[in-house]
Design brief:
Blueprint lengths: L18 H6 L22 H19 L4 E6 L5 E7 L7 E6 L14 H8 L2 E6 L15 H17 L4 E7 L1 H9 L8 E7 L5 H11 L4 H16 L9 H4 L6 E6 L7 H10 L4 E6 L7 H4 L1 H15 L2
Parallel strand pairs: 3-4, 3-5, 5-6, 6-7, 7-8
Antiparallel strand pairs: 1-2, 2-4
Helix pairs in contact: 4-5
Length: 315
Amino acid sequence: MGIKKLAFGLGTGVITFTFAALFAVQEIGVGVNPKAKPSDGKMKGMELERDLLDKYEGLGKKWFESQPYQEIYMTNKRGQKLCGYFLPPKDGQNTVAFLCHGYKSNAFRNPMLFVEHFHEHYGYGIFVMDHTAVGKSEGHFVGFSALESDDCIEWLHYLSKNVGDFQYIIQGVSMGGATVCQMVGKDLPDSVKFCIDDCGFTGGKQQFAYELELRGLPVHPIIDLFGFVNKLRAGYSLKETDTISKVRKAKCPMLFIHGEKDGFVPPFMAQELYDACPTDKELVMMKDATHAACAIYDPDLYWEKVDGFIKKYIK
């Protein structure tokens, strides 16, 4: 999520504290569609995590692609055709793991860390999707959880009407974690039994400000200009990416998981989200885990905590 490539509606745009950079900010929220040039997922400073994730995501992807999943399409309220991938539950099961990917990712990256375990160990169905402007889904702008959370709520209603009457565990990694955190404070169906936030941020504005401060750059006026241009070009404001305000309205139990050595989304954000949540909740800080890699660093603890919520809330 490096600042040089951070864009709430774009995968490009250089921000430096110079006069020329103010013109570059105009490209944030507009420009190249992220799906037009697939990302390799690498961000400066995240080479170790990316290499590690490539290995384990690749194994999950290979497993998932060997399964009889269905490609499903839905048109959202913005008129965009979105693509999802559904693997039905095993016989006798009525639960689906609804998994959201992060920034610069897609359905076949972050969620692939979890698909085999959810399906083979628990027998649950799997639903993963390409968020707006990613993979096979239409759209020009990444929503940094604002657009994605609205789409995911629509997906849940669509699946209920057109695929089957299931109960859901919603889970997301990084921006996907922020996406599910936004979902819990919106029009969340009763079919969602609990939520897993894996290294999500407290809000797009907060995350951007953190990135600026790390580089010794003044938050203002850069973030103000950024927000103005993004609203003008991408159609949504930084306020709409605020996650913590949605968590305060949570309607389901929440499990927060975050790596103690996460250098991209700071661990203090997990604590703030946990403190804001009014429902039954648990916070797990994973020792030595880096960004988006908690399930790799300590899979036994990760699934122990998930299992505890499953035993409590999945009937």
